[in-house]
Design a protein that fits this description.
Radius of gyration: 19 Å
Helix content: 25-40%
Order of helices and strands: EEEHEEEHEHEEEHHHEHHEH
Distance between the termini: 42 Å
Protein name: Sugar kinase
Shape: globular
CATH superfamily of the largest domain: ATPase, nucleotide binding domain
CATH architecture of the largest domain: 2-Layer Sandwich
Strand order of the largest sheet: 3-2-1-4-7
Strand content: 15-25%
CATH topology of the largest domain: Nucleotidyltransferase, domain 5
Keywords: Kinase, Transferase
Family: Belongs to the ROK (NagC/XylR) family.
InterPro entries: ATPase_NBD (IPR043129), ROK (IPR000600)
GO molecular function, one term: kinase activity
């Protein structure tokens, strides 16, 4: 395939776009606010593509990959139930409309799956779980060298695993789901802050010795560890990469989850033998969602190795 491959990570507030060359080098990067609604999403995505094309001095764009929340039909190029984007009706033909606006072939993928492909590219392992700690809690599975989407596209929806039968009702209709404890939204609700990122504020306060912050941090880390444990016991991956908005905390997040995993294994020689804490990584500066979006596009050559920064400290 000739030309750069563009990846768009479309979220409810912003679109992050990158252009990747044939050798895997990131050639250009752009961010812009997302305009909600069908026409708004197409228009704002097309504007990011135009900015990338300009940054490439008018160079050819071979294809565009899009990572987007919601239920994605990759074959049809449609998305539905992306409520945070104002796309909560029938299947929306984003690939067709964005392709017509940009003159390039467009391929869609669920945003967590796209980020999983990006995490695979930077980690370069064939068995990997990408655990996204964003507004919700979800995982992408890259197993034996391929994405595992599931029969209904629900593989990795660990956030909707009920863990507390007496807990509050989740948005999915079940009671006491793990997402209500171990997600960015759950953390923000437990540690509200008027300014800045709630996760950063929480971990800073906990590091300073605030007892209340330590309690909230540990409860959150225990929930994330429970998600890691459930996924690891199901598919036994070589690596678990934590991403999403909370991952901006970096190494302190990995340490807290590693400590929780170790404590949870103290009474189980079986769990201890799996050394789950040593498999953890936390995404740092690598734009894995946009990288993965670029890599979902149809290609005729081997996938290049991408090497942005990612934390890799082991216990």
């Amino acid at each position: 395939m000739n030309g750069a491959r563009v990846g768009l990570d479309i979220g409810g507030t912003k679109i992050h776009g990158i252009a990747i060359g044939p050798d895997g080098e990131v050639l250009a990067e752009e961010r812009a606010a997302t305009t909600l609604g069908g026409e708004g999403v197409v228009k704002s995505a097309a504007a990011v593509v135009a900015s990338l094309r300009e940054a490439l001095d008018g160079g050819e764009i071979g294809s565009i990959g899009v990572g987007i929340p919601g239920i994605v039909d990759t074959r049809a190029g449609t998305v539905k139930h992306a409520v945070n984007l104002g796309l909560d009706g029938d299947a929306f033909p984003l690939a067709e409309l964005l392709g017509a606006r940009t003159g390039a072939v467009v391929t869609l993928e669920n945003d967590t799956n796209a980020a999983t492909l990006g995490a695979h590219a930077v980690e370069d392992v064939d068995d990997l779980i990408y655990l996204s700690l964003g507004t919700g809690l979800a995982a992408g599975l890259y197993l034996s060298g391929a994405l595992r989407r599931g029969f209904h596209g629900a593989a990795g929806e660990v956030g909707h695993l009920p863990v507390d039968p007496e807990g509050p009702v989740c948005g999915c209709g079940q009671r006491g789901c793990l997402e209500l404890v171990a997600s960015g939204a759950a953390l923000a609700a437990a540690w509200p802050t008027a300014t800045g990122h709630p996760a950063a504020a929480l971990f800073a306060a906990a590091a300073a010795g605030d007892p209340a912050a330590v309690e909230v941090r540990d409860r959150f880390a225990n929930g994330v560890a429970a998600a890691v444990r459930a996924l690891a016991l199901a598919v036994d991956p070589e690596r678990v990469v934590i991403g999403g908005g909370v991952a901006a905390v970096g190494e302190p997040l990995r340490e807290a989850v590693a400590v929780a995993l170790t404590r949870q294994a103290e009474t189980s020689p079986f769990l201890a033998s799996l050394e789950l804490a040593s498999r953890l990584r936390v995404v740092s500066a690598a734009p894995v969602a946009a990288i993965g979006a670029a890599l979902i596009t149809p290609i005729t050559s081997a996938t290049p190795t991408i090497t942005p920064t990612i934390t890799s400290t082991k216990d």
